[in-house]
Specification:
disordered N terminus, 7-stranded mixed sheet, Saro_0823-like_sf, 9 strands
Length: about 160
């Protein structure tokens, strides 16, 4: 019986029908989509004012499955611009629980337009995490509002996707 159970789990894992356990790490964002798919992105962390101000400026490329995670000390209104950013980016805005609330796709390089972290009428426009990915990556990975961010920086007591 144990062998049958083990073979069943192995078969399901090979077909992708069982979610793989993934532990949180500082250099990785684990993203659980509303339809149950888990995506992993290697991240650089920007968690102080100087790092957040620099962001991904002057980079000439950003590989797939890589990004920058901006971490704020507390939830607050956020907006980004693309000053000195040479590549198109997807900018994903998360609340304090790590729930994706807004996606700005394909932000234009070198554009000085302010890109707010919340749409008009959002009942809770404060954001605590922002993830920048190469333009088009959010759609390719199926990252839509409701996606949950798993990362050690997300307060675990109320995290939408707690760390393992």
């Amino acid at each position: 019986m144990k062998r049958l159970a083990a073979l069943t789990v192995l078969a399901l894992a090979m077909t992708g029908s069982v979610a793989q356990a993934a532990s949180c790490a500082r250099d990785a964002a684990i993203l659980l989509t509303p339809d149950g798919r888990e995506q992993r992105v290697t991240v650089e962390i920007a968690d102080d004012a100087a790092e957040r101000a620099q962001g991904l400026m002057y980079r000439k490329s950003l590989p797939p499955d890589h990004g920058m995670l901006f971490v704020y000390q507390s939830p607050q209104p956020t907006s980004f611009w693309m000053k000195n950013t040479l590549i198109p980016l997807d900018i994903l805005f998360f609340d304090a629980r790590g729930v994706l609330r807004h996606v700005h796709s394909h932000a234009r390089p070198l554009d000085l337009t302010s890109l707010p972290g919340a749409l008009p009428g959002d009942p809770d426009p404060n954001r605590m995490f922002v993830l920048e990915l190469a333009g088009g990556e959010a759609a390719r990975k199926g990252l839509v509002p409701g996606t949950a961010l798993g990362h050690p920086a997300v307060p675990q007591g109320d995290a939408a996707r707690p760390c393992d």
